[in-house]
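User: Can you help me understand a structure? I only have the sequence.
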Amino acid sequence: MAGEETSTATHDATALDVPWNVIVHDDPVNLMDYVARVFQQVFGYQEQYAMRLMLEVHQLGRSVVWTGQREKAEFYTQQLQLHQLKTTLEKAS
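Assistant: Let's start by predicting it. Here is the structure, written out as tokens:
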């Protein structure tokens, strides 16, 4: 209709992709060497780095083993859980 004005609002807000942490927790079931091997297999980590993360899990009760985009973090969480590792996902701070 003539005389009517249409207003169009645009928003330039962009949501930033918050990084996510993949956390492995200590458990009484899995042997330390097994945990390190899983880290090497799933992430492709070198043996020395995988051992360092495994020791962190063992001594501190948990370790951030990977940080990045949520979709990939969910994938890694699932892979670690398939290897029977107690694994959670949380937003990185």
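Now, to help you interpret it: The longest helix spans residues 47-60. Residues 20-91 form a domain with the Ribosomal Protein L30; Chain: A, fold (CATH 3.30.1390.10). Let me know which part you'd like to focus on.
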